[in-house]
Design brief:
DHBP_synth_RibB-like_a/b_dom, 6 helices, L-threonylcarbamoyladenylate synthase, alpha/beta, globular, eleven-stranded mixed sheet, tRNA processing, ATP-binding
Amino acid sequence: MSVVYDCSRPETRAEGLAAASGAVRSSRLVVLPTDTVYGIGADAFDSGAVRALLRAKNRGPDMPVGVLVGSWSTVDGLVLGVPPEARALIEAFWPGDLSIVLAHAPSLQWDLGTTRGTVMLRMPLHPVALELLREVGPMAVSSANVSGRPPASDVEQAREQLGDSVSVYLDGGPSGAPVPSSIVDLTGGEPVLLREGAVSAEAVSEVLGKPVTAKS
């Protein structure tokens, strides 16, 4: 049976964050508010929980899950190396609406789907999400919806789609406009904009000091 916690009230927010932390550590799923849309999340290093996340969304490993982090420094332990372009984008846009694809550290024991040795990272600009991430560490997070349906912009939409596959729902109120994060791939010789969302191609290019190529 899933439980919804109202994070607008201090007492239920603390109770909800404690319940969500316990759920993540027990290989269960949580729904959390982010600065884009609501997300469904699990411990990034718990492959069984990540598979459960994909099942809840009716999605296969061919659409891998990104990872949310609670601090800039967390990235250093997750990737093979942080190039200067990634540092510049992190400083300019994190926490915020930009996801960055990098080669992950080969020593990491995780299974996020068919990633081909890469990981998509983001630090969200939402106090509830950040508090949970700083408590439990990196989380595999995808939009809180069944694949093919609109992403949830409030906790009730998420619960209607995901039901009891999720143990804890953190209600942070309605999200903003349902605009996804932009995604920049830095695993090749030149940066590639895989998706233009909340952060424009022009803004990315300005930080990098050169045009960013859009995926064709």
